[in-house]
């Protein structure tokens, strides 16, 4: 699953279903799902000011370029992973 991270204060929900409803998947991790169809949309850790959102749940998610990839060392040998430059490291 592809995720994108935002500061919680920078994210505005525009879905007619409203904000996600949350459930705990780990003592300090909570997943948010659509109130209508229950599709998983978000992941939020306790104490974090960031919210991770499934990239394809965003209206313009296809325009985002990946800057990180979890578990890339465990990827299949035939899998090619190309990352964009990290915009936070360029000033």
Task: Give descriptors for this structure.
91 residues, mainly beta, five-stranded antiparallel beta sheet, 0% helix, globular
Tell me about this structure.
The protein has a 5-stranded antiparallel beta sheet with strand order 1-5-4-3-2, with no helix packed on it. The protein is 0% helix and 30% strand. The two termini are 29 Å apart. It has strands at 3-7, 21-26, 29-33, 40-45, 50-54. It is mostly beta strands.
Number of E-state strands: 5
Global mean pLDDT: 83
Could you tell me the strand content as a percent range? 25-35%
Outline:
globular
Helix/sheet category = mainly beta
Placed side by side, the strands forming the largest sheet appear as 1-5-4-3-2
Main sheet?
A: 5 strands, antiparallel
What gyration radius follows from the Cα positions, in whole Å?
A: 15 Å
Q: Write the H/E string, N to C.
A: EEEEE
Count every helix, treating DSSP H or I runs of 4 or more residues as helices. 0
N-to-C span: 29 Å
Unreliable stretches covering 5 or more consecutive residues: none
> What percent of residues adopt helix (DSSP H or I)?
under 10%
């Amino acid at each position: 699953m592809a995720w994108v991270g935002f500061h919680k204060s920078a994210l505005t929900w525009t879905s007619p279903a409203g904000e996600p409803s949350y459930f705990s998947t780990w003592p300090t991790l909570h997943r948010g799902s659509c109130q209508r169809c229950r599709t998983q949309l978000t992941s939020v850790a306790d104490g974090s000011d960031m919210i991770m959102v499934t990239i394809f749940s965003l209206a313009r998610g296809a325009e985002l370029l990946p800057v990180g990839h979890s578990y890339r060392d465990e990827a299949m040998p035939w899998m090619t992973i190309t990352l964009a430059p990290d915009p936070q490291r360029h000033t």
